[in-house]
Amino acid sequence: MRRKIKFTPTADAQYSALENVPSKAAIFEQVRKAIGYLEIGPHHPSLNTHEFTSLTGINGEKVFEAYAQNNAPGAYRIFWHYGPDETGGKKRTPVMTIVAITRHP
After folding, report:
1. 25-40 and 9-19 are packed helices; what angle lies between their axes, rounded to 10 degrees?
2. How far apart are the C-alpha atoms of 25 and 54, rounded to whole Å?
3. Domain count, the chain
4. Coil, strand, or helix at residue 23?
5. Per-residue model confidence (pLDDT) at position 36
6. Which among 1, 18, 65, 99 is placed 20 to 30 Å from 77, CA to CA?
7. Could you tell me the residue range of the domain that residue 89 belongs to?
8. Rounded distance, CA 49 to CA 66, Å?
């Protein structure tokens, strides 16, 4: 099931910074591709998704880490959590919130 992707203000700024710096074009493409995989399903093998226990969401959500890069110095990671889902009448839209896009901590 596809999920709607939302960004926190921090993640939005990090995404925009990668998008707008020509020297980061290759990294931006890898991050964009990884977010596309997350939208389809977070269990894609290249994402190596796992819980990141050092962070929790604003409302105590479990935060997960997904790989945008692997085997690279300072490889980029995407931190995200499920929700909050959007509701409109009887329809529920599942949401995945990107918390941060940063180099591996």
Report:
1. 130
2. 29
3. 1
4. helix
5. 94
6. 1
7. 4-103
8. 4
Torsion of CA 51, 57, 60, 65, to 10 degrees: 0
2-14 burial: b if 16+ Cβ within 10 Å, else e: ebeeebbeebeeb
In order along its 105 residues, the chain shows pLDDT tens digits of: 678 999 999 999 999 999 999 999 999 999 999 999 999 889 999 999 999 988 777 778 899 999 999 888 889 999 999 988 888 778 888 899 999 999 986
Check which CATH number belongs to the domain holding 88 and give it.
3.30.2310.20
Query: What is the number of other CB atoms lying within 10 angstroms of the CB of residue 37?
Result: 19
For residue 1, the model assigns a pLDDT of 65
